[in-house]
Amino acid sequence: MHLDLQVEQFLKQVQSMGNPPLHQLQPIDARRRFSQGAKVLATTVRPAELERVDDVSCPTRHGPIPIRLYIPQGIGPHPLMVFHHGGGFVLGDLDSYDHVASALAERTRYAVASIEYHLAPEAKFPQAIEECYDALLWLAAEAHHRWDIKSEGIVVAGDSAGGNLAAVMAQLVQIYGGPSLAAQVLYYPAIDMATVTESKRLFATGLFLEWEDIMWFGQHYLTTAKDGESPLASPIRCTDLTGLPPALVVTAEYDPLRDEGEQYATALSVAGVPVRQIRVPGMVHGFLSVPFLNAAQEILSMTHEFLWGLTS
Question: 125-150: per-residue pLDDT in tens?
Fold first, then answer.
């Protein structure tokens, strides 16, 4: 299939701005541009209708981190989704993913806790993982009595680098025995930081996420190339995937990360994990953050169907 027409127009608009490639920027400048772009995208759809939004501070072994909790309308207790934002471990924060997390809360009717972990290169691998796992434990302990949110059957979710973190959370819960997870939702996840797949070769340039950007992210996040071979950085390298929670794995047809996401879905299925794998035709990496795309809205609806189908 050809690129989606909406995506073609979006890419032309991005290219017409004449900005230097991401991998040519310093992290602080890349973050500023990422944040500005997210603010513009957020204005292209109406704000989500929610009961309330709470900003809280969560203790971790590396110090406190912010969490933004989106409470949907309706009578609680609501199920909980812990969302990990993308940005290659270098970019992104609560504000730049506000429109994504709030839309997830509205559409799925889950309370969504969006995690703001510390970014690389200031915080190298595996600090983000340790912070996110500490946050997951804290939310499981605090959710019910602080916000009338269910502490059992938590869903871990994330996009791109956040999909990596969500997949790692599911594996750590399996290793350490808790908290209870109902599912993992992985949107175009970065699953293998040590392998050059065919999709990384095919879609290396001109399609939003470029090969040199991927290398730039990895160089900032990892200390050595050997780090990329750890299951904590490349969850597809985990030797035992049995017993992990059911997974929704969403990939994009024209995404360099497409193959590794689909290979992980296959590996989960082979290990006996219930998996729904969706390749979205005509889409590029990061499309969920572009809310005016029809495909972004469709995937939100499919996420709702997947999650509530688990309890039917």
Answer: 999 999 999 999 999 999 988 998 99
Query: 159 near 188, Cβ under 8 Å?
Result: yes
Identify whether the C-beta of residue 80 lies closer than 8 Å to the C-beta of residue 139.
Answer: yes
Active site residue 304: no
What pLDDT digit, counting tens, does each position of 77-133 carry?
999 999 999 999 999 999 999 999 999 999 999 999 999 999 999 999 999 999 999
Question: Any catalytic annotation for residue 285?
Answer: yes
CA distances 161 to 144, 221, 233, Å, are 28, 11, 10
Point out the catalytic residue in the list 160, 230, 234, 289: 160
User: Rg of the chain's alpha carbons, rounded to an integer?
Assistant: 18
Question: Of 4, 93, 98, 255, which residue is the catalytic one?
Answer: 255
Question: Is 255 a residue of the active site?
Answer: yes
Measured between alpha carbons, how far is residue 174 from residues 98, 99, 163, 238, 309 in Å?
29, 31, 17, 12, 23
Domains of the chain: 5-309 (3.40.50.1820)
